[in-house]
Amino acid sequence: MLLFAGLIVSFIPAQEASPAPAAKHDSLQALGFNITIEDLVRLLDLQRSLFLDPAAKVNTDWQDKFDELVVREIPATANRYAYAVDSDQGLQYVVIRGTHNLRNAILDLEYWKDRSPILGINLHHGFEKAALAVFNDLEPRLKPKMPIVVAGHSLGAAEAIIVGMLLTKNGYTVEKILASGPPKVTDDEGWEQFESLPVIRVVSAYDPVPFLPPKSFYPESPYTQAGMLLMLLDGPYVTIAEPTYFDNMPAAFKGVQKLDAHFDVIDHRIWIYADRAREKLAALEYVPFAGWEQYAKPRGDAKDAPKK
């Protein structure tokens, strides 16, 4: 999705607002999100580890945390996902890697709408193709009566949402879907049909990808975000963004490394998501959305940062 972001040139004005007072909270559940900070960090760390090569290292790092863990490669889309079982929690986990290579980036760019014959809604062509590849490989492994948690970042977040839709359509129980840095996958009609889908959308401050694909691609029936979006700011701070905030595109893009002063591509990277979430383990404070920029700064220059 970083490549996709780099190809878009548009503008959204920076918000002018005074900093609002922060309010301490004991948990994300108190803010309306069905996940703990500890589980959020755990899932983001697992998403991050999927970028490791070889894939066997993922098993080494995580095999003692689950009763069953397998990392699957999907040659058709050059992507991978992890399937894990936690018997203590009574949950199955499906965690999908984000954009990692040129073939993944091409999927991001295949933004035209397809009418899904399975789901009966409009879907982003590339995301639907990638999600179906995961679902078809995954389904034979699933335990039919055990609830499922699906998670992903970037392209993987888009796939996670659609895989969650497919699981629901096929009668599986989806406990939650964690979509971090999610691009848009469908339009308002699609979200109306899946309004009960338990998606937790997490956005890192200054991440441009949740604005994509832009409204201008389908002005009459644009791709949209839906539901509450948890925005991770610096330190203990979080805020909640309404989906309409992501209707318009970010500020003018300056090269593939960095947007203007309001948006920085580095904030889309999974290691930033994991680090921002980990900062909330000690304390959690909510701030109103107006003026959120006072509580977060872009995380440095992308050229000096780790790739993942």
UniProtKB/TrEMBL annotation:
Residues 93-215 form the Fungal lipase-type domain. It comes from the Bacteria. Pfam families: Lipase_3. It comes from uncultured spirochete. InterPro entries: AB_hydrolase_fold, Fungal_lipase-type, Sec_MonoDiacylglyc_Lipase. This is Fungal lipase-type domain-containing protein. GO terms for biological process: lipid metabolic process.
